[in-house]
């Protein structure tokens, strides 16, 4: 089949993001510079049979009809367009229920295919909500003009930045202004309270700020989260009547917690009045982990406030209280890990040596590796990497390790006052390795550069947890994880980067690991991610 004459005349370099001429006219796109929707004319074995003129009459006598062409909704990248041909049945993609998909739906489908990780249908329904709330927006388009514009803004911004498409970047800037105007009008209408569509539009704009190239503007991630929290406070349980509302509440609670810990600011969704909402919205083990982490922000704030305390007796009492609260949170996290292992007896496994391109042919791995000089390389720092059943388990385990690092550092800060023997009783629980969540027994000394397999000292516990997060980077930045994979590891990676940055200046290994974390962050910046103020403050690009 040949491309349509109109599409060929335009030389496949259109002003629009994509072209549907070939799809609309039933042709197969060949040689286009931009990805297209493909049409599969050999959808079944019967198609090959009908290609034989002699067998056609026999098949018609059996009541079989000629199979119709299937129209696809999901884009195929430019690197795959030469491998997928009309007679190739091994490379199948999901058929679109719409017989004539619009250009907008094609573009949004391309965004979903790039943004979300693979394996959406393979995981349980309760686990799909962690990343695939955005699929609900695609299925509900047309119900709200503000949401449609915000969703298009997110898709255009992400593809424009990740593909370095200057035309899409300019169009995204126009959509950004239009989305903010439509969202302000929707919030200002007095006809009724804001609904889930407005909350979804706020979330789309918050994610847009992650990839927005408009550096001269104030980063709006935190501002959008505050606006969404105000909306949740005003509506309460009314937002949780739909699955979309529950998913958005959970996502806003998670991102708000990151901002609160990084900026030491108040966190609206951490208030006790939202406990009943959390119990109604929690859908999977990661949601329950975030529930246990809610108290960390107040713990850090109280630990910062005791610096100004001058009276020794009062200081000792307050530090003992912080130590007891931190110990209680750690024990609750132990219980969470035990519950997770009931579903996943082996939540992570050690895999082979790191590949030379550490990230599986991704930009991030190259940037991370290039951050080292001489003999300092990712292979020397981390000789093995971790694998997980799916991305949600990886996200849960990395956040578990990051939370443990924060809590244990709080405990170590209290050691000089409460006494090392009191703190030592807590670290004894880590020596078996069960509470670390790491797959023991294993020659972990190859990673740590030490002979022991389990932690004996507090600093060893912290380093093992930090190395476990670093060894999970390759899994998260693999191409099959889309854009969600790198985003879920931002906060844990920032935690271990801060740990190595505050290590002894003479510790060369910690300095190299700190440079490794910075290299990963720079790779994300090259891919188009724009960090919020806390990450910008601690991770300056070079």
TrEMBL record:
Annotated InterPro entries: Osmoadaptation_assoc
Protein name: Uncharacterized protein
């Amino acid at each position: 089949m040949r491309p349509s004459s109109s599409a060929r005349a335009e030389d496949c370099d259109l002003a629009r993001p994509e072209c549907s001429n070939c799809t609309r006219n039933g042709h197969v796109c060949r040689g286009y510079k931009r990805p297209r929707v493909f049409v599969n004319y050999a959808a079944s074995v019967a198609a090959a049979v009908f290609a034989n003129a002699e067998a056609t009459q026999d098949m018609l006598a059996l009541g079989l009809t000629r199979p119709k062409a299937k129209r696809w909704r999901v884009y195929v990248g430019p690197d795959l367009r030469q491998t997928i041909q009309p007679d190739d049945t091994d490379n199948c993609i999901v058929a679109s229920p719409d017989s004539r998909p619009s250009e907008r739906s094609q573009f949004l489908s391309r965004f979903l295919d790039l943004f979300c990780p693979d394996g959406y249908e393979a995981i349980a329904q309760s686990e799909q909500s962690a990343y695939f709330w955005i699929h609900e927006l695609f299925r509900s388009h047309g119900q709200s003009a503000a949401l449609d514009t915000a969703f298009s803004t997110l898709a255009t911004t992400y593809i424009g930045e990740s593909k370095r498409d200057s035309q899409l970047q300019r169009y995204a800037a126009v959509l950004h202004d239009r989305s903010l105007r439509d969202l302000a009008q929707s919030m200002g209408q007095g006809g009724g309270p804001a609904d889930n569509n407005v909350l979804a539009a706020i979330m789309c704009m918050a994610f847009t700020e992650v990839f927005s190239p408009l550096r001269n503007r104030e980063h709006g991630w935190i501002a959008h989260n505050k606006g969404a929290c105000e909306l949740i406070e005003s509506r309460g349980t009314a937002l949780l009547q739909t699955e979309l509302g529950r998913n958005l509440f959970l996502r806003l609670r998670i991102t708000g917690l990151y901002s609160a810990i990084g900026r030491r600011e108040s966190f609206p969704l951490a208030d006790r009045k939202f406990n009943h909402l959390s119990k109604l919205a929690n859908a999977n083990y990661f949601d329950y982990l975030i529930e246990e982490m809610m108290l960390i922000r107040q713990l850090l704030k109280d630990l910062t406030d005791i610096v100004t305390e001058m009276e020794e007796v009062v200081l000792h009492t307050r530090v003992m209280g912080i130590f007891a609260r931190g110990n209680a949170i750690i024990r609750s996290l132990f219980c969470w890990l035990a519950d997770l292992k009931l579903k996943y007896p082996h939540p992570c496994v050690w895999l082979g040596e790191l590949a030379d391109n550490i990230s599986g042919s991704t930009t991030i791995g190259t940037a991370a590796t290039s951050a080292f000089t001489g003999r300092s390389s990712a292979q020397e720092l981390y000789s093995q990497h971790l694998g997980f059943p799916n991305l949600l388990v990886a996200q849960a385990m990395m956040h578990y390790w990051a939370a443990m690092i924060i809590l244990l550092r709080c405990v170590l800060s209290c050691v000089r006052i409460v006494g090392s023997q009191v703190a030592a009783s807590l670290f004894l629980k880590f020596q078996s390795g069960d509470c670390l969540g790491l797959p023991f027994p294993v020659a972990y000394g190859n990673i740590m550069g030490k002979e022991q397999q389990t932690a004996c000292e507090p600093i060893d516990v912290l380093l093992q947890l930090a190395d476990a997060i670093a060894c999970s980077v390759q899994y998260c930045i693999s191409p099959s994880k889309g854009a969600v994979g790198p985003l879920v590891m931002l906060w844990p990676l920032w935690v271990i980067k801060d740990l190595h940055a505050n290590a002894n200046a003479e510790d060369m290994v910690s300095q190299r690991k700190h440079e490794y974390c910075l290299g990963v962050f720079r790779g994300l910046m090259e891919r188009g991610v724009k960090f919020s103020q806390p990450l910008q403050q601690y991770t300056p690009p070079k």
